[in-house]
Write a structure and sequence with these properties.
The structure holds two protein chains of two kinds.
Chain A lengths: L16 E7 L6 E8 L5 E7 L3 E8 L2 H7 L39 E5 L15 H4 L1 E2 L4 H12 L8 E5 L9 H10 L4 E6 L7 H8 L5 E5 L5 H8 L4 H14 L4 E4 L1 E2 L8 H10 L4 E8 L8 H7 L3 H11 L10 E2 L4 H11 L13 E9 L4 E4 H4 L2 H18 L5 H13 L4 H31 L7 H12 L2 H9 L1 E7 L9 H4 L4 E7 L4 E6 H16 L1 E2 L5 H19 L6
Parallel strand pairs in A: 5-7, 5-17, 7-8, 8-9, 9-10, 10-12, 11-12, 12-16
Antiparallel strand pairs in A: 1-2, 2-3, 3-4, 6-19, 13-14, 14-15, 14-16, 17-18
Helix pairs in contact in A: 5-7, 11-13, 13-15, 14-15, 16-17
Chain B lengths: L3 H13 L4 H11 L6 H13 L3 H9 L2 H7 L5 E2 L9
Helix pairs in contact in B: 1-2, 1-3, 2-5
Classes of the chains: A alpha/beta, B mainly alpha.
């Protein structure tokens, strides 16, 4: 049986082969690489470093899925050149980050690491202050500078920001940062956290009062053993309590973020989805993240440890009784043309989902509250055709969207011809241009909606929500769609073994960083920052832990010890 | 036979403690088996809702809490099937 039953028509029968650019995992020099389908039916990334030899990484176990997914390459909306820190590329991607003149997209989400301090000591983490011996924290003023830069991006200013770390809740000024983010105009503010501080209901309420919308909660599994392996001790009862506290405090948007490591938490994907379904009133999304590999790894070990998108799709298929089978998943850029159309129509700076198809995939599950049935969005609508139609209209609009100044030009010309400046004439021109633009927008959206109607497989709650989005076309409607659904997704971040510049150039999740070396705010694609640039940037602001206030260090250690003790204690009776 | 007030008070207490809709339904069905009935529960929901402050009522509606609660503890099925595992 074909891996993807109803989309194979669009999959080329030829063996896949593409020449790309990558980096040497040892010296990080830019080197040529090739992605090709091997006789054993796997898609591999092969590269040879002149100094360090050959490296092979498996990108997909399923060439059909891989080839099919490459169809979904949407055209991005690039950041204006004057907003890039490194407009002239010299060393090439990924070394000219900041972003450089070659970057093809605008970030949908920017992360700001506000501390590397952490109240956990996870065996799989190598970046926290306790391990590195250095504390890295931007000042409040530097964080504000970063946020102002992100808001100033054009044509799409950044509308979503996430505070991360280390553990961001260890910063006492976090509530002020969240408030400042809203004050600066961010529409969506998120927190990437292990949630430990949220075991205090008072802290939940304090953060809720800032207006924070979304909590990205570290969530590796649903059994004590898994937590012991990933985080060093049993956090499962604490995580359950955190979810309850978030509900009591009034949070309604929690994203469960499981790190999936082979042999450690890969058996938990079904359980985690089930847990999300049970808490579907406040859990909006499960975002699986296969663990990134770092350090020197022997080839056979690399193949053994690597979890790629196709592996994860198969794990989910098996562990959900084939409910979420391979046919329900789509690469993230599927949504890009529709998001661009909404942005253009509303005039509100939007989001650009035109990342590389290998960056991630997603599906939506919709709860039918009458039958108790969870259905997939693919049960309702023909997704590949939806992508094609959206892309068709976005291309049509792209060609014309900046050409609504005809009347203004004519009336301006008339003023010049008469040798006078009659403001009234100019206003008439502007008014007519406005009417023309509004009429054109409605004309396009009406045709778009009509074409989408033809793709509906069955009606129901999901279609009502999609119709609302297309008819009223507001970001609020897009947000309300999320309340009717559970999104299941995967972000497959790159490491030095899997890195390709073609992906990096399309990255839509950036780190916002204040570089003290030159006093500039820079943006780095997520994967290049973590794999390459982070140590270089952090070196400039790192303070040895011995120089940090002793009381602060002791508090960190005390909190950790208390947590360890609490986790070891017997469960309280319900 | 439990009285309506007893069920309302119990449901209010469970929700106030942060239980998810499935847990809440399971607890009610276990404690008051004669109340494991969608129609009967539907009638008391507005009364339970009113016991919460206005801001909490809005939150409960926004998260479709009671719609999910009414589905039943074990009846959420995904595309006609149940998942094989249970944490």
């Amino acid at each position: 049986m074909s891996y993807l039953s109803y989309n194979t028509a669009e999959v080329s029968r030829e063996k896949y082969r593409k020449e790309v650019t990558s980096v040497c995992p040892e010296c990080i020099k830019v080197i040529p690489a090739v992605i090709e389908e091997d006789p054993d039916g796997k898609i591999r990334l092969k590269k040879k470093s002149p100094e360090h030899g050959e490296f092979v990484d498996i990108l997909s176990q399923h060439p059909e899925y891989y080839k099919w997914s490459q169809n979904f390459l949407a055209e991005g909306v690039a950041i204006d050149q004057d907003k890039r820190c490194v407009p002239n590329t010299e060393k090439g991607c990924p070394w000219d980050c900041g972003t450089c003149g070659r970057h093809k997209t605008t970030p949908i989400l920017s992360l700001i690491d506000i501390t590397n301090k952490c109240n956990l000591r996870c065996p799989i983490c190598f970046a926290n202050a306790a391990v590195t011996g250095n504390v890295v924290e931007p000042t409040f003023e530097e964080v504000v500078k970063i946020m102002k830069h992100l808001r100033s991006l054009r044509p799409y200013s950044n509308i979503a920001v996430s505070f991360s770390g280390g553990e961001p809740t260890l910063r006492p000024d976090l509530p002020d940062m969240i408030r400042k983010a809203y004050e600066l105009g961010f529409l969506q503010v998120m927190l990437i956290t292990n949630g430990i501080k949220f075991k205090s209901l008072d802290y939940c309420k304090e953060i809720k009062e800032t207006g924070l919308q979304t909590i990205y909660l570290q969530f590796d599994g649903t059994t004590p053993e898994t937590w012991e392996r990933t985080r060093g001790f049993n956090l499962w009862p604490i995580k359950q309590r955190i979810i309850r506290n978030l509900r009591i405090a009034g949070f309604d948007s929690v994203v469960l973020v499981p790190t999936i490591a082979r042999g450690i938490s890969d058996h938990e994907v079904g359980n985690i989805i089930q847990f999300a379904i049970d808490n579907i009133d406040i859990v909006r999304c499960v975002n699986f993240q296969p663990v990134s590999l770092c350090g020197r790894i022997p080839p056979e070990k690399l193949a053994e440890m690597r979890i790629n998108i196709s592996d994860l799709i198969h794990m989910i298929d098996e562990q959900t009784n084939h409910v979420l089978n391979p046919n329900v998943w789509y690469p993230i850029p599927v949504i890009a043309p529709m998001a661009n159309l909404i942005t253009w129509y509303t005039g509100v700076p939007g989001v650009d989902f035109a990342c590389h198809p290998d960056c991630g995939f997603a599906t939506f599950m919709v709860l039918n509250d009458q039958t108790g049935e969870l259905e997939c969005i693919t049960d309702y609508i023909d997704i590949p055709e939806f992508f094609k139609i959206s892309n068709k209209y976005w291309e049509e609009v792209s060609k014309r969207k900046d050409k609504f100044h005809r009347f203004e030009t004519i009336t301006g010309g008339l003023n010049e011809l008469l040798g006078v400046d009659i403001p009234f004439l100019r206003e008439i021109g502007k008014g007519l241009d406005g009417i023309h633009e509004r009429a054109y927008k409605r004309y396009i959206m009406a045709r778009y909606f009509w074409d989408v109607l033809g793709l509906i497989k069955k009606t129901g709650r999901a279609i009502q929500s999609v119709s609302k989005i297309l008819l009223r076309t507001t970001w609020d409607d897009v947000a309300s769609f999320m309340y009717d659904t559970l999104m299941v997704s995967c972000m497959h971040f790159q490491d030095l073994y899997s890195m390709r510049t073609a992906r990096t150039e399309r990255c839509i999740i950036h780190y916002g960083v204040y570089d003290r070396r030159d006093g500039k705010v820079k943006q780095f694609p997520f994967c290049t920052y973590n794999s390459i640039h982070r140590p270089l940037i952090e070196k400039a602001i790192a303070v040895p832990i011995s120089q940090v206030d002793e009381g602060e260090v002791l508090t960190m250690e005390k909190e950790y010890k208390e947590l360890e003790k609490e986790a070891a204690a017997p469960l309280p009776k319900e | 036979m439990a009285t309506e007030k007893e069920v309302i008070d119990e449901l209010y207490k469970i929700i106030a403690e942060g239980a998810n809709p499935r847990e809440a339904r399971l607890a009610i069905s276990k404690k008051f088996p004669d109340w494991d009935d969608r129609k009967k529960l539907q009638k008391i929901i507005p009364k339970v809702e009113k016991m919460f402050p206005t801001i909490r009522q809005t939150y409960i509606r926004k998260t479709s809490y009671f719609k999910i609660f009414l589905i039943g503890p074990d009846d959420i099925r995904a595309r006609g099937k149940k998942f094989p595992q249970k944490y």
